[in-house]
Amino acid sequence: MAKIAINIATGSLQQEEIIVGIDLGTTNSLVAIIHPESKKPVALKEHNSSSLVPSVIHFGKNAGITVGNDAKQYLVSDPANTIFSAKRLMGKTYNDIKNNSTSLAYKIIDDENKLVKVQVGDIFYSPVDLSALILKELKKQAEHIIKTPVTKAVITVPAYFNDAQRQATRDAGKLAGLDVLRIINEPTAASLAYGFGLNKAETKTIAVYDLGGGTFDISILNIAGGVFEVFSTNGDTYLGGDDFDAAVVDYWLSANTFTGEALTHRQVLRLKAEEAKKYLSSNELFKTEYEGKEISISRESFEAVVKPIVERTIASCKNALKDAGLKKNEVDEIVMVGGSTRVPLVKEMVSAFFEKKLNDTVDPDEVVALGAAIQADILAGNTTDMLLLDITPLSLGLETMGGLMDVLLPRNSKIPARASRQYTTYKDGQSGMKIAVYQGERDMVKDNRRLAEFNLTGIPGMPAGMPKVEISFLINADGILVVNAKELRSGVEQSIEVKPQYGLTDEDVEKMLLDSMEHAKEDMDLRALTEAKTEAEQLLQTTEKFLQKNFESLTKAEVTTTSLAMQALQLSLDMNDKNLIQTKTEELNDISSPYAERIMDEAVQKAMKGNKIDSL
Ligand code: ADP
Ligand code: MG
To answer: pTM for the full model?
Structure first.
């Protein structure tokens, strides 16, 4: 538990140990704590300044690194050495981001299949290094404000972050000297802050709509008796205010021609576009000058260029409602989070979609950090009347025979979660088993994202079907997966923490969900075919073995008809015809089961006789 003392001379807080809540944003980051006196969450800020710390890093000539407000001015004067939106690169490869990297003014290493790195001078920085620099700055500022060492934190991530991105965030914390006690989802954190002030006896269903600079998240939750239960979550890790800015830049570039370098234009215009966007939140016309030309944009034109972007968020809202099994009118409150929800068109469209007035009781900039501070307080054991039940955004499963996805934990499962299932070998004496872990919604693993693969080795020799390999998935409260495989008869065991090398792009996530709906019929057909084939292949193998073993106990006619039926089945397999495979499987079964039973009976009788003799 945090021990707290107030320094009477300065009036500042002095705490021996405190767990802070950190919103590590794409655009802005901030730190919050539970105020020791008021017991309410507060965002930390220096006198007369904002609590928001821009997530910008400038690398100066003599290795002088500045972060936050001081770094922001270099976006124009020294763009090649000024890194922004590093969070967008977390857990991604160059392949993942290459189509979206044009708006970045700094250099990215274009090694296709490796995790992205940023080059500054001749030094390479990973997104983890960059996030760590931001976290270090936040830690320093927080320590300065509360005059206490800060070593423990709860950090928020977009709900749609996958394992790689969560791991990367955790690693960044570690690098910054922070013990990251928990990673929580941003919209869930926001709901905690929203629910903090509620009467604990109240029951409410809320939607948290979070549109920041780089990501969009929507979560549907239920709050009842202090229990926060997430029903569903949806979103896009590549959608936000940055896209509004880019749309405005495109609008200007298409209406004007400028001399000089395109990249410089984009960089300067990007900042002007952001200025325009903010200005238009409360005015009708924005005018500025660039290269001696007047450029302008009206509220109407602005709304026209950003409308398609906002529509994408509405599509996510629909999916989230569908997954939660709720209708629009069953949502009691819409909580708006993130700087981009200040755009009037966003408010209008969201309000129109849910057919409801929006809730504006929370500060859209601070609410996520405040929620992280509440979660920190829950972990410290101070807040005991609130409980968070979060979920995982995508299904997790294993590859089984024929490349099928066997889902162990469906998407929107409560976390922490555990699931296990037993598998067996399909070859006699098989000593190893490949365990391939996938994330996604499609029926065939090739359409999903592979997270990890490992081999369970050292299974003692046993006939096919005898080993019992139990594979269990454990998603901890951070949403990070641990996979364990154990052969139960021998106790052979192996386990890995899933550290995927590649992140999912927003398109991947979106595509995975869309594909799973679009291809539902195709997938079902393919699944049925694969299952039929697997069954047929197994029957062929066992019949083959049976024939070899019991050749002498069979009549010639039996052997011939069986061989013919086997050939017919093999032929149907080659033709990939599901119905034919099923028919031929049945036929072979019909032919072989009578004599298989007869031989079994004979064997049993022999054994019984033997038994009698023995027991006499
Ligand atoms: P993140 O969570 O990605 O760090 P924030 O929630 O801090 O982002 O939101 C940042 C985004 O909000 C930026 O794209 C910024 O331009 C936008 N924004 C901030 N204030 C306004 C405003 N008044 N009108 C429109 N957009 C705004
Ligand atoms: Mg945010």
So the answer is: 0.70
